Amino acid sequence: MSSAIKAIEEDRKVLLELCRQMDDSVWTKDSGCPGWSVQDLLSHMACSFWLAVDPSKLPDPGGLLAERAADLYVESRRSMTPEELVADYESVSLKGLEVLAGLEGQDFEVPLGDVGTYPASVIPTALAFEEYIHIRFDLFAPDGPLEGDPPASDELRLAPTLDWIEVALPQQNSKLLDRMDSAVEIRLGGLCGRRLRVGTGDVVAHVESDSQAFVRWVTQRGTWDELGVHADGDAAALEIVRQLRVI
Question: Which of 7, 39, 235, 240 could be stapled to 128 by a disulfide with Cβ–Cβ 3.0 to 4.6 Å?
Answer without folding.
Answer: 7
